[in-house]
């Protein structure tokens, strides 16, 4: 055991922050997991946040984490399914000859001079 009671340490590096997973033992012999988040703050300072989870609570914490991950995965799949349904409905609507609505200002007539007018920007359409 080292001076600080560390038994094992691993690090996960991301773009703007790092996570450290430290397995430690305190003076009473209790083993716990310390999770530390470190991100660069103002100047040369680092913001650090940590939580400690003792060995006897680890299974309950992992069960809660597992439930959360399952919920996130389920929600991600449902959102992807809803997006696919909306996209399919739009494609079906416009594939059957339905036209998109074209909005114009009052008193403005539709001009077919090869110029697409979209607000302040004018786009020249190619003529094929």
Short structural description:
The protein has 128 residues and is α+β, with helices and mostly antiparallel strands.
Keywords:
1 helix, two-stranded antiparallel sheet, 128 residues, elongated, alpha+beta
Topology:
Layout: E1 6-13, E2 17-25, E3 31-40, E4 46-54, H1 58-95, E5 115-118, E6 121-124
Antiparallel strand pairs: 1-2, 2-3, 3-4, 5-6
Query: Order of strands in the sheet with the most strands?
Result: 1-2-3-4
Q: Would you report the number of β strands?
A: 6
Uncertain runs are none
Beta-strand content estimate: 25-35%
Average predicted local confidence, pLDDT: 83
Please report the distance between the alpha carbons of the first and last residues: 77 Å
| Element-level helix/strand string | EEEEHEE
Sheet with the most strands, sense and barrel status: 4 strands, antiparallel
Shape: elongated
User: What is the radius of gyration?
Assistant: 29 Å
- Number of alpha- plus pi-helical segments: 1
Structural class: alpha+beta
| Fraction of residues in helix | 25-40%
């Amino acid at each position: 055991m080292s001076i600080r009671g560390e038994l094992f340490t691993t690090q996960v590096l991301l773009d703007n922050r790092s996570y450290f997973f430290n397995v430690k033992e305190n003076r009473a012999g209790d083993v716990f997991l310390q999770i530390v988040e470190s991100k660069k703050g103002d100047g040369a300072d680092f913001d650090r946040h940590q939580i400690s989870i003792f060995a006897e609570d680890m299974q309950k914490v992992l069960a809660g984490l597992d439930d959360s991950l399952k919920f996130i995965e389920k929600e991600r799949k449902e959102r992807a399914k809803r997006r696919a349904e909306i996209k399919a409905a739009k494609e079906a609507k416009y594939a059957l000859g339905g036209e998109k609505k074209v909005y114009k200002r009052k008193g403005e007539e539709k001009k077919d001079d090869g110029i697409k007018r979209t607000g302040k920007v004018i786009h020249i359409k190619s003529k094929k």
